[in-house]
Specification:
594 residues; alpha+beta; Glutaredoxin; three-stranded antiparallel beta sheet
Length: 594
């Protein structure tokens, strides 16, 4: 079909990633300029559910299915509910030929990740057989939506949006990109830097991989990267809400002065981890203050009863408030952010909160075989996102506490991910295990979760010593380095992180000493404070038996607990003073980088 001229936003042209990136943000810009209603009210029965039954009904009634993907914290979604979906003229057109379906994108990662490039709200028109006919990005008023509905009825042939990436390739074990691929990505990221205001691009997103990658570059001695990340983190403090302490996921002006009051969990995790690490690296009190405020938001606003975490918060127009649904994915993200804060600050209440969250997830969201479901009851799934976020959280807890039970839990979840989501043909990971939905195209592989899975298995391999874990990570990197990813995106700091970690050993420090010895605790705290995220920190109390990956024969040190910094080839002399641990790890890091 050919869309009306006023429906130009429906087409996704063959543009660069950054142009797509900011066009998605356009909906967020509009979202802060109008009043919005609260969460969805379906008392009139206007909306149907996403299900095979709905598509079967559409086939019987010879109707299209029109799906609105929305988010709790998205004001523009509420505006479209009020101004467009409730409009009598729109409903008159819909009544005869369409079945409207509402999907809360937070509750259905399998559907959300398929259409996340279209922003929220996203509007998708399907044929009754599941064929995608039209995909619309952001808010559409009745004036613009009605002609599209009418054109769809007249000509239901699918719009050709092209293929954003190249073909998937056969499974390959690789540890990184080619020099040309890496240079292209680095150049793109560097050009995206906003020299006038800091940050990357015109609108300012809280993007965890970008922050982490520049912190890594700064820790490695790149002074330009240090200047950029410090300026960006300083500017980003303006996005921390003075009222609640959470960070808005986006500023709609380049000078950080227009934060949208939308607080999804992924942004909170990214910011807390970045500020905590920056505090440990640079000692800037402003970064510690930012981390403290963000931790307070986790503790005071997002922490649910019994240990789990709420999904998000919205305080933009309409003020939907806290989304009190509790998902394994968001709880895993919260744990990761909070333990990063604990590692940097030693704040005891943080590790208590993180442990309680992990225990809640294991109690309330666990599946047989080490996996996790999304919610209390899942309409589909299980989903990769929940499992990879919880796996990373459990591994982070093992590192932060030295307790082996968390490594055992992380290993079990890793096994579940490998059995349930890994694609033996490509080495990538499917977004959902529900691969037989009749009304959807073939299963998708979402890039960010594939990066997270690859990075998890790379670090897990260091802790377990299992070649199988390393192989899974290298197969994941083989997928990330393929045309299906590299041809679809240009802004890829997360892929660079995965490559950097696969090509290098993690910084490895082991404390040899009794757990009930305060000197051991002080040494371990110093190891945790070392500001590299790719880090293998272990606590060997010989009463517990050998370490799970006992690849180093640590000498006895009769003078008490000691820290050893090691590579696969050699170890440092024993360190007994916590203040000396960072210098020893710096020497190790320099040796590893040669």
């Amino acid at each position: 079909m050919v869309l009306p001229a006023n429906a130009f936003d429906a087409i996704l042209p063959a543009e660069t990633f950054m142009m797509r990136f900011f066009s998605i943000l356009a909906a967020l810009v509009l979202a802060t300029t109008v009043a919005a209603a609260g969460p969805l009210d379906n008392r009139d029965g206007f909306w149907s559910e996403w299900s095979d039954g709905t598509f079967e009904r559409a086939a019987v009634e010879k109707k299209f299915v029109i799906v609105s993907l929305q988010s709790w914290w998205c004001p523009w979604c509420h505006v479209m509910n009020r101004d467009t979906w409730a409009n009598p003229d729109v409903r008159a057109v819909l009544k005869e030929k369409f079945i409207p379906v509402h999907v809360d994108q937070d509750s259905r990662p399998d559907i959300s990740q398929r259409y996340e490039r279209w922003g929220w709200p996203a509007t998708i028109i399907f044929g009754s057989d599941g064929t995608e006919i039209v995909k619309l990005r952001g808010f559409y008023s009745p004036k613009f939506l009605i002609p599209i509905l009418q054109e769809t009825i007249k000509d239901p042939s699918p719009v050709d949006y092209g293929i954003p990436g190249g073909p998937e390739r056969e499974r390959m074990l690789v540890t990184g990109l080619t020099d040309a691929q890496r240079a292209e990505i680095v150049t793109f990221i560097d050009k995206a830097y906003d020299h006038a205001n800091g940050g990357w691009g015109k609108s300012k997103l809280v993007d965890g991989p970008t922050l982490a990658w520049f912190l890594d570059r700064a820790k490695a001695g790149d002074k330009e990267a240090e200047t950029r990340i410090r300026r960006s983190l300083t500017g980003m403090t303006a996005m921390i809400d003075a009222e609640v302490g959470g960070i808005s996921q986006v500023s709609l002006k380049p000078d950080w002065s227009a934060p949208a009051r939308e607080f999804p969990m992924f942004a909170q995790q990214a910011a807390l981890g970045a500020y905590a690490r920056a505090w440990a690296m640079f000692g800037d009190a402003a970064y510690r203050d930012a981390a403290d405020r963000l931790f307070g938001f986790f503790r005071n606003t997002l922490a649910g009863p019994g240990g789990g975490f709420y999904a998000s918060m919205g305080l933009a127009e309409g003020q939907p408030g806290v989304d009190r649904r509790q998902y394994a994915r968001e709880t895993g993200q919260a744990i990761q952010g909070i333990v990063a804060y604990y590692d940097a600050t030693g704040e005891k209440t943080a590790i208590v909160l993180a442990i309680a969250a992990a225990e809640w997830a294991l109690r309330e969201r666990s599946l047989p075989g080490g996996g996790f479901r999304h919610a209390e009851r899942d309409a589909s799934g299980p989903y990769l996102a929940d499992n990879v976020e919880m796996a990373a959280a459990l591994l982070a807890l093992h590192r932060s506490t030295g307790e082996r039970k968390w490594l055992a839990a992380a290993t079990a979840t890793g096994g579940f991910i490998a059995r349930t989501f890994a694609d033996p043909k490509t080495g990538g990971f499917f977004a959902s295990a529900a691969r037989d939905a009749r009304h959807l195209p073939k299963p998708i592989k979402q890039r960010e979760d594939n990066v997270a899975a690859t990075r998890f298995f790379a670090l897990l391999a260091a802790y377990t010593g299992q070649a199988r874990d390393r192989e899974i990570a290298e197969a994941g990197m083989g997928y990330l380095a393929s045309p299906s990813v590299l041809d679809a995106f240009a802004f890829l700091p997360d892929v660079l992180l995965a490559e950097e970690e696969l090509r290098n050993e993690p910084v490895h420090v082991t404390i040899v000493g009794l757990r009930d010895d305060a000197r051991s605790s002080a040494l371990y705290a110093a190891a945790l404070r070392y500001p590299l995220a790719y880090k293998r920190a272990e606590w060997w109390d010989k009463r517990e038996g050998l370490l799970p990956n006992h690849d180093v024969d640590y000498p006895d040190f009769p003078e008490g607990p000691a820290a050893f910094a090691c590579t696969r080839n050699y170890c440092s002399l024993p360190v007994t003073d916590p203040a000396a641990v960072p210098a020893q790890l710096d020497r190790l890091q320099r040796a590893l980088s040669r």
